[in-house]
Design a protein that fits this description.
two-stranded antiparallel sheet, alpha/beta, nine-stranded mixed sheet, Rossmann fold, single chain
């Protein structure tokens, strides 16, 4: 199934509609595409009377939808510009959309649109995420490099949030050991021009995929940085936390992951030193010693997504998996 380019502006408008939760957006999209068997373009061309008869909408929703319709010409121009620059715009119902995001985040949290630059096949490779504090400790950096190296040896890619500290070190470690990485942005793709230039060769060679779920022109904000964390977790089969304080983005992301039933692995903290890592262990995270735990990462305890298996051939870039269909 190929998503018609004329549909993309409507997807973009809905994805970034203000004051709507992701679940509400996705449920409306599902109602239009799956239940009513309509295109988004046809949906937006319905008059209010038809909308009232066919969909459960509030009065304020009609105003929002009218605003999107008015913005469609501008969004169409933006979509065309992105495609010309080599970006991919991947809606939730596209076969290119990440299996893992659908399965981990479900309809309630899965972002309606992904903006990508690079090798889309990386979305379905076996993967780990290594996250942690911006003010990384020497122990955290050492743990990050060792865990990343083990992952690369097992043909797993590394998901990075590109934040200073642990996240960026995980990315650099992956590339140091000739591995692959997905960079999850806390901003829009058009505001990451310096990063794309920095990793242009790796992007071109298929070793790095840049991904954003935010409006292409969105600039970094603390709120977007926090909103990015579930995407990092959603793209990873295994999640490792190298450093963590009792507040901040790493802590919030970990607590959200635990709440969603994800298994977290944390660096085994030194005895007697109370950190956020201790508290996460108390909440069910599993302590890992990167030196003594010599077995494969895949052999460590995993209790999530028993119904879905992913495999990837690193050299060919192929991937397979069982997708939970939302549409």
């Amino acid at each position: 199934m190929t998503i018609a380019e004329n549909e993309l502006p409507y997807w973009m408008g809905l994805a970034h509609i203000g004051n709507w939760r992701t679940e509400k957006i996705n449920r409306l999209i599902a109602a239009v595409l799956k239940e009513k068997q309509m295109s988004l373009e046809d949906f937006f061309n319905l008059d209010k009377a038809d909308l009232e008869r066919g969909f459960s909408l509030e009065e304020a929703d009609y105003v929002k939808l009218a605003e999107i319709k008015a913005e469609v010409p501008n969004l169409a121009f933006l979509a065309e510009s992105l495609i010309e620059q080599g970006f991919d715009i991947v809606p939730l119902n596209s076969p290119d959309y990440s299996f893992k995001l659908k399965n981990h985040l479900k309809l309630k949290y899965a972002p309606p649109v992904l903006y990508l630059k690079g090798n889309k096949d990386l979305l379905n490779f076996d993967s780990i995420a290594v996250v942690g504090s911006r003010k990384a400790s020497p122990e955290g950096l050492d743990f990050t490099e060792k865990i990343t190296h083990k992952a690369i040896l097992e043909n797993k890619l590394v998901v990075s949030g590109f934040a200073a500290g642990i996240d960026q070190y995980a990315l650099e470690s992956a590339l140091k050991y000739k591995g692959k990485s997905i960079v999850v942005l806390p901003q829009g793709v058009t505001t990451f021009t310096s990063g794309i230039k920095q990793y242009y060769q790796q992007i071109w060679e298929g070793d790095v995929l840049v991904l954003s779920t935010f409006h292409p022109k969105a600039r970094w904000t603390p709120q977007l940085a926090m909103s990015r964390n579930p995407i990092i977790y959603g793209l990873a089969d295994q999640i490792y936390i190298a450093d963590c304080e009792e507040k901040g983005g790493t802590w919030s992301g970990a607590i959200d992951g635990i709440r969603k039933g994800r298994t977290l692995f944390v660096r085994e903290p030194a005895p007697g030193l109370k950190t956020g890592l201790h508290l996460l262990i108390q909440k069910g995270a599993i302590a890992v010693n990167a030196d003594s735990d010599t077995g494969k990462l895949s052999a460590q305890k995993i209790s999530e997504d028993k119904t879905t298996e992913y495999s990837a051939d690193k050299t060919k870039g192929t991937a397979s998996g069982t997708q939970i269909e939302l549409f």
